[in-house]
Amino acid sequence: MENQSVEVSSVPPVADEGGVNTEPSIPTLTAKPKPKTWLVVLLVILGLLFVVGGTYAFIMKSVKQDKEVDIVADEDGGVVVKELGEKEKVVEKKVVTSKKTKALNKLFYVKDGNIFSYDITTKENKKLTSYSETSANIGISNVIDEKLIGFTRCLTIEGDYGCALLTLNTDTMKVEERKKLGKSEHSSGATFATATKFAYTFFDGNKWSLVYENNGVVKKLEDITMTGEFGRGGFVEDSSKVAFSPDKKYLLQISTASPRAIMDPTVHVYDLSNDKKDVIENATQPQWMDSELIVYRSYDEENQKGDGLYIYNVKTKKSEKINGVVDASYLPNVLYGTKKIVYNVYPTKQVWLYNDENGKNEKLADLGLDPLWVNESTVVFTSIENCTNDCEGMMDYNVLGISIFDLKTNTATFIPEIKNAGPIVTEYL
Q1: In a domain, 159, yes or no
Q2: Were both Cys, which of 95, 125, 159, 160 would link to 183 (CB 3.0–4.6 Å)?
């Protein structure tokens, strides 16, 4: 690099406005050649950024970290974090364990042709609909958001099944019809992503169809002509479900009593972006763990026995067995956003909890069926007693009511009044 010559010039005292001499300024260094202006500006800016960044880091480190926050899910399955005194801000997109909605801590069920809710905190049992036709067939599909519940309803009218897909606003008790099926179409299952985005199955004569509707745009994903009789029931492998993934990009469907086969232990997974379908063979009782993973019971059809619980990845199309549970495990139910699974064991009818993150497996209760998550520390299940000749139905047990199990205290609260009710639905199913 070529040397630069520098001249030092002394500056004489300068008089201020009052005529008083001030101290002379520091000698000025004059470089040749003179530095470019843009370089000086750039160095100044970098220096300021360094100072500001250091100050910000110091302040953030000094601030107490355990601020009170509220975490809710956005429409895309992301997370919105609201800190007190700050504006809402969106952080990394991921599945939320609990959406913290008004549906949290509540059970929804059908009894005498109407929908009821039970709040496990306040113990309030509330009738949400006021239908007079107690013989109508109602099925709760799922909790849609903090206010809406999706359900189906069919009437026993000769020549017209009167089936429809509807939503119930739990605040206003308002019921809105979202889809009216044809007179000869009988609903056999449904799921809602939003009030105007849903999927459903129905029978129409000798045809069985799976339909996906998004804001009025209707698409048939399956349309199968039945060639013979089918139908079965009373087996632990039985399953009938339609369910969107948490991010609403995929749809799974299963019906073990299916027109595809007399016994159909297959889960069909549809990619709604391109209409492609994948099939999980020898699988039943599926549930989404998150937007990519599905947990299910594996069923060995040839030997007619269970093969434990597996996890299927919709991206890799591969399944892996959960090694921490016995092969007789069935009816898995997942706490969304985690790897915590409650399930039953056959034939003992025990309720177990498995955590795939640490491999811990523990029994929660005897004589319990259909375990569901209510919140992050509470599980609900149907309480039963074994029977022989005095059985009320075709099973080898009688239903006594439901039990609310607190994982923090390892205690269960028995609720006998919710006995002869339809399947229970929570925010997690």
Answers
A1: yes
A2: 160
Q: What are phi and psi of 55, to 5 degrees?
A: -65, -45
- What is the distance between the alpha carbons of residues 64 and 313, in angstroms, rounded to a whole number? 40
> On the CB side of 77, how many CA atoms lie within 13 Å of its CA?
15
Q: How many domains does the chain have?
A: 1
Q: What is the DSSP string of 3-56?
A: ---EEEE-----B-TTSPBPPPPPPEEEESSPPPHHHHHHHHHHHHHHHHHHHH
Edge-first strand order for the sheet with 114-119 is 106-111, 114-119, 125-127
| pTM, full prediction | 0.76
Q: How many CA atoms lie within 13 A of 16 on its CB side?
A: 7
Residues counted in the chain = 429
Model confidence pLDDT, tens digit, residues 159-200: 899 999 999 999 999 999 999 999 999 999 999 999 999 999
**What would the pLDDT profile of 121-151 be if each residue is shown by its tens digit?**
999 999 999 998 777 899 999 999 989 999 9
Report the alpha-carbon distance of residue 122 to residue 318 in Å, rounded. 44
